[in-house]
Amino acid sequence: MTVAVINSGGANLGSVVHALRRSGVEATLTADAGVIRSADRVILPGVGSAGAAMRALDQAGLVEVITRLEQPVLGICLGLQLLFEHSAEGDVACLGILPGAVERLAVPPELRLPHMGWNQLDWTDPDDPLSSGMDGSEWFYFVHSFAAPVDQAVAVSDHGQGFAAIVRRRNFAACQFHPEKSGSAGARLLANFLES
Amino acid sequence: MVAVRLIPCLDVRDGRVVKGVRFRDHREMGDIVELAQSYRDQGADELVFYDITASPQRRSVDVAWVERVAETIDIPFCVAGGIRDVATARTVLHAGADKISVNSPALERPALIAELADAFGSQCVVAGIDSIREKSGFRVRQYTGDPDNMVDPRRDTLSWVEEVQRLGAGEIVLNCMDSDGVREGYDIDQLATMRKHCRVPLIASGGAGTPEHFLKVFEQADVDGALAATVFHSGQIRIPDLKTWLARHHIIVRS
Q1: What is the DSSP string of A72-129?
Q2: B119 to chain A nearest CA, in Å?
Q3: Model-level pTM?
Q4: Which residue in A94, A144, A178, A195 is the catalytic one?
Q5: Which of A143, A163, A182, A190 has the highest number of chain B CBs within 10 A, making it the mutation to test binding with B?
Q6: Using CB atoms and an 8 Å cut-off, which of residues 205-234 of chain B contact chain A?
Q7: What is the DSSP letter of B197?
């Protein structure tokens, strides 16, 4: 199996490659349209701001390449937010694969922003292929200040408000947390993606 | 609900993990990757590596061990020590660190925090603060990794806690120096005071000796995580036992 990890210019993209290697899969970190199109699985990671990431994808000529992908795609963290139509972070148009807009988390004063740490999921679609072998007791590592609406979510999480923890539309799925940093639960989710 | 984080702190000197008492008399504790893996397996929620020789000697972090850790462990980790510019931070983050923590260099040049937050986002930028209790209140200390070169930057801790947040720090680790390494409990009074002025996650550091100390700091200072070294390294407190015990006392932990 070939796995392409899209190099969107953010920091720490290597962590996803390391996580896949621990699962026995050699992934390629790339911004090459040909490599991305021909891969069996594509991962869109991202740490940084939505504006900078969209500019990087645009400059690399990857916006249309990504939106037309037909193999299973997994967005991670910012990679989830980029799948929506718009992000309030930098007021930027995103890939528009999922309807809706990403907004800053509205947290009450007693809660912290960023939402940083381990949290659990509530599967709204327990039949989603990514949920295989999980029952909601697992913990995943989140670090974000912006979040997507729950309408398109197959799993939601909560930090002062409900937000999309995992979304899906056709071959595109994405998680707001970092499976590559979520211990055994994260490894299971990545394995589910590779098997989907 | 987000779980509290239990964070073993691995002080690194010349590529090995060490631990001192009140920042002096460092003893060697073992290999970085082996210790990191062992803590990950025990259920540590995050790891912090402080290169304690880096800042006083004005050299930056050796990234070879950062890469080795990143290849091996699948929980988040933060690297501190000697990061004084965006280029160095980028090297450390690209080597696989999830966050970078700045302490002494940010006191030298506070704009560093804003530059790092602009380049990588606040979620990557931790402000490490070493604080000491004086008659006039809580005060910041600089270059604490080397007691012979420690400096009083003439700042009170509260104003620095507020300033680092304004500049874009996404998390604060407050190391209460009077409690560090002596295992008599976290400085609840100081942490609770700073908590009131902290919108970002606050991590307690310095003083853990018993499970009760962890319970007290989560209940009374409302911190998001607790850092400890000696009690974990010595095996005096095992993380799985501590989590079970905290859960029984209604603290939300990752099981």
Answers
A1: -EEEETHHHHTTSSEETTTTEE---SSSSEEEE----TTS-SSEEEEEE-EESSTTSG
A2: 8
A3: 0.93
A4: A178
A5: A143
A6: 224-225
A7: T
- Is residue A104 within 8 angstroms of chain B, CB to CB? no
CATH of the domain at A110: 3.40.50.880
The per-residue pLDDT for range B150-183, each reduced to its tens digit, is 778 789 999 999 999 999 999 999 999 988 877 8
For B191-246, the pLDDT digits (tens) are 999 999 999 999 999 999 999 999 999 999 999 999 998 899 889 999 999 999 99
Residues of B with a catalytic annotation lie at 11, 130
Please indicate if any CB of chain B lies within 8 Å of the CB of A112.
Answer: yes
The count of structural domains within chain A is 1
More confident residue, A53 or A96: A96
- Residue A113 contacts B, CB cutoff 8 Å: yes
Full domain range(s) for residue A37: 3-195
- B45 contact residues in A (CB cutoff 8 A): 117-118
Q: What are the pLDDT digits (tens) for A138-163? A: 999 999 999 999 998 999 999 999 99
Determine the pLDDT at residue B61: 67
DSSP secondary structure string for all residues of B116-172: HHHHH-GGGEEEEEEEEEETTEEEEEB-TTSGGG-B----BHHHHHHHHHHHT-SEE
